[in-house]
């Protein structure tokens, strides 16, 4: 039987490698606890940001959906009930414009409260076109109350209205009133009574509407015109076109975006005119969201999910160095290196709240790489090996940074990267001969 002095370095690893791998494996599993704590902190910070964001946006104006303008005229039906009494029933005719042209320029703005930021906008909107009511059937069946005709414009949140609204019909300015007289179709907005008129049946009624409105995240319109054309421009370069219709043409670059829509009454789910509230016009809304593809909290959380992979790969680097250089690394030293890797994700989140994600990633990764390589120099006292450790860990952080910048191809790139890493590990491990 061999004594301790007779056991060679190679024999030592043959007898103890399995035990060491088992202990390191348990240590890595235990490190999931601080990793999960870091993820919880990131989620908590993101929720705090969302709460502050909500409070800020409530005072600025919510997501806006501009619906209209719609011409609404009441009709009075007279009938005799079962008891022989004369009754009157009042209904509203909802008339959509023959043409609707919308030109909108969205001006984004970043608002701050402490370290938290929110994206809001002010939109300058011009609407023009004309109505041509066809009311022959209503005139035969009921009394059309032309002198009570109104033009209604639906606005999700009236608090967002900025300054004066210029609303004119046939070049005659109208007096704007808050709220909606008829709420069959919309609940919030503004209205304007037409001038005293005898009839507008089969007459062309031109309109022009100019106003500014503030909102958050999204601006939507409704294709109420028989022919609706809409042009939206902005300096925001991350638009998300949403709703029932997509733009026919669009341009997106570093200077912003522009989008052009053309929609007819055949594309939507409601007719040109009707009475009552039988149709939901909001099913046909369209527009744009000021999309933030990956905020720093989302990126920090995504990076933290790769934490266990970083710990495993870094541990393998040190383990292979032990096998080749025959230099003992204590379990405590493995633990300290792994904790430094966990600390990276916490530092990254804290810095990203102040200097942005990209700069935070650079600063945090440089700090942790410097810490680990300096510690490796003290442990191994071998410059060549330390350079290898620094280079490999730098490659890991670079790979993760590139992965976080990808959106559509992140999953594919991650799998390709992991395949290459596994192939390298297999190649290196094949050179380890233990008997």
From TrEMBL:
UniProt keywords, alphabetically: Membrane, Transmembrane, Transmembrane helix
Keyword Membrane among record annotations: yes
GO CC term (a single one): plasma membrane
Transmembrane segments: 12-35, 306-324, 331-351, 357-378, 385-403, 409-428
Domain of life: Bacteria
Keyword GTP-binding: no
PANTHER family given in the database record: INNER MEMBRANE PROTEIN CRED
Protein name: Cell envelope integrity protein CreD
């Amino acid at each position: 039987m061999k004594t301790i002095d007779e056991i060679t370095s190679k024999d030592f690893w043959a007898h103890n490698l399995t035990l060491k791998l088992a202990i390191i494996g348990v240590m890595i599993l235990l490190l999931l606890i601080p990793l999960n704590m870091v993820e919880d902190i990131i989620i908590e910070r993101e929720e705090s940001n969302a709460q502050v964001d909500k409070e800020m946006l409530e005072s600025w104006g919510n997501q806006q959906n501009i619906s209209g303008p719609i011409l609404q005229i009441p009709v009075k039906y007279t009938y005799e009930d079962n008891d022989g009494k004369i009754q009157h029933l009042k209904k509203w005719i909802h008339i959509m414009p023959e043409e609707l042209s919308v030109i909108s320029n969205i001006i984004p703005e970043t608002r701050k409260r402490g370290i938290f930021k929110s994206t809001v906008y002010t939109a300058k909107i011009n609407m023009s076109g004309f109505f041509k009511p066809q009311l022959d059937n209503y005139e035969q069946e009921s009394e059309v109350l032309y002198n009570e005709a109104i033009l209604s414009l639906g606005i999700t949140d009236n608090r967002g209205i900025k300054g004066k609204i210029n609303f004119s019909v046939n070049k005659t300015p109208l007096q704007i009133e808050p709220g909606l007289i008829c709420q069959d179709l919309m609940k919030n907005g503004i209205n304007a009574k037409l001038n005293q008129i005898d009839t507008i049946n089969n007459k062309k009624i031109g309109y022009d509407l100019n106003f500014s409105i503030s909102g958050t995240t999204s601006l939507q319109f409704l294709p109420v015109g028989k022919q609706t054309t809409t042009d939206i421009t902005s300096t925001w370069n991350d638009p998300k076109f949403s709703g029932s219709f997509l733009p026919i043409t669009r341009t997106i670059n570093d200077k912003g975006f522009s989008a052009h829509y053309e929609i007819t009454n055949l594309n939507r789910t409601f007719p040109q005119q009707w009475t009552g509230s039988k149709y939901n016009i909001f099913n046909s809304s369209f527009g744009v969201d000021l999309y933030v593809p990956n905020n720093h909290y989302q990126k920090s959380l995504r990076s933290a999910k790769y934490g266990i992979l970083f710990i495993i790969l870094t541990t393998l680097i040190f383990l292979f160095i032990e096998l080749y250089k025959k230099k003992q690394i204590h379990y405590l030293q493995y633990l300290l290196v792994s904790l430094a890797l966990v600390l990276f994700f916490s530092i990254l989140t804290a810095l990203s709240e102040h200097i942005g994600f990209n700069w935070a990633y650079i600063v945090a990764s440089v700090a942790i790489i410097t810490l680990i390589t300096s510690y490796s120099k003290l442990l191994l006292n071998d410059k060549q090996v330390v350079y290898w450790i620094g280079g490999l860990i730098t490659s890991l952080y670079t790979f993760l940074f590139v992965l976080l910048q990808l959106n559509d191809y992140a999953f594919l790139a991650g799998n390709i990267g992991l395949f290459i890493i596994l192939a390298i590990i297999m190649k290196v491990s094949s050179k380890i001969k233990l008997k």
